[in-house]
Every structure is written in structure tokens, then in C-alpha cells.
Specification:
This protein is α+β, with helices and mostly antiparallel strands and about 250 residues long. It is built from four helices and 15 strands. About 20% of the residues lie in helices and about 45% in strands.
Length: about 250
Amino acid sequence: MRRQWLLVIAFLVAMGLLSTLSAQSSAPEAPQDYATIAGEIKESIRQRHAAFLRGDREAYRQFITEKCYFVGAGGVDMAAEQLAGMKPAVGEKREIEIGSDISVQAYGPTAIATYLQNKKHIYGNQTLSVPVGVADTYIRKDGRWLLVLHAEMNILAKRVPVKVDPAIYKAYVGQYEWGPGFVDTVQLSGNKLMALLTGEEKADEFFPVSETTFFAADDEDDGLITFVKDASGKVTHYVYRAHGQDIIAKKIK
């Protein structure tokens, strides 16, 4: 539950693609120094994003391969699907901010660029910002770096705990079963509410966002844990909500 595999899967897909695409590329070119490679890829990113913001499919097509993959929270698209969905913005203004610390690593005719990206949707004086971490994989062909894989991972806003009376934690202590053989043991450590999942070696601290709802700082799924009581005030279970889905953990002890 507490792991995100998006970029791992993306890199595995990339590795499978690279051997095929390398065979399709032109003859090996003379080695380039790092500064040259990084500069070319950064300029490619800038121009590709500019084409995207204009909704210019033909210009965008010049920076990607025909078998390029786009991986994100919404799933996986091929190049054709990405291009088909591209169009000029209507009724909104779009901007893409790229972090200045783009990291580029080259492996012969292959290169990987990682960076932070903030896509803005502007509606009059209102702005919706979508920050993501990006991993781009490129292959060099015919003197250019072409994108073969674009993978995005959402950057979640940092939650801030609120102050509550630690005396309320006592009611939450116990064991909560997610399913046969998988139990979350909730316990006290001084004035802290801690939880140890089956298979984990280290307990996570539960931080309150209210008197009944908590989060774990190390939970990469960014879920919320809400304890539920019956009519008599006894805790019967908690609900773990992440990615719009609920897991009910029944209190068994």
C-alpha cells in the first residue's frame, strides 16, 4: 500500500523499448560531451512543450518517436493517442513551468532526463496548478534526441498535522485486520500514535488532521486513516482511503 511503482514500471517499459529502437536508429555517431547532450535535450524539452501549448501536432511529432509511450496517473497512451488528444486551449490559458535543475544522464545513444514540471491551467484570475515529477527517456537518431518514453508522477502536497488531545489516542489502540494474515497494530509510544503493518520492520506515526482522521508521513500512497465508532462510542474499524478507494480494517483486538 505504501509504494508507488509508476516510475519503476515506466523504466521497465523503457528498457524493453530501447533495444528495439536502437536497432532502428542510424549508425552510431561520434560521442558527445555531457554539456552538449544536456543542452540539446533541454532545448528539445522546451520546444516540445511549446508545440504542446500551441496544440501544434506536426511540430510536436518532430520530437517523439512513432512508438513513444506517455505514462501518467490517467494510464498509458501511445504517440498516436497523445497526438489525437492535442489541440489548442479554448477558454483557458496554459503554461508549463520546468524546474531549473533538469538532470540528464547519457548511456551511449540513450539518455534519461528527470525534472520537476508544473502545468498551469489559467481561467481568468484563477489558476489550477498540477505539479509532477517527470522522467523522459530519449534515443539519438539522425542527429537528434527523440522521446521514447515520458513518465509523470504526481507530487502530493505536504500535509500539516493539527493539535489534538493525545488522550483520545487510547481508544484507537488495537489490531486492525485488512484481510487474513494482514494486520495493522496501532499502539501508543508516549504521546504518539504509532502503527506497524504486517511485514514492516518500522512503525509509522499517525499524525492527526482531525480527532478521528490521520495520515502517515511515509505513506507514498498519501492515504487517510479514519477511525469509526459505533453508537456506544467503541471503535469498530478504520477506513483507509487512497486513490479514491477505501480499505476497511476491522478491529479484531
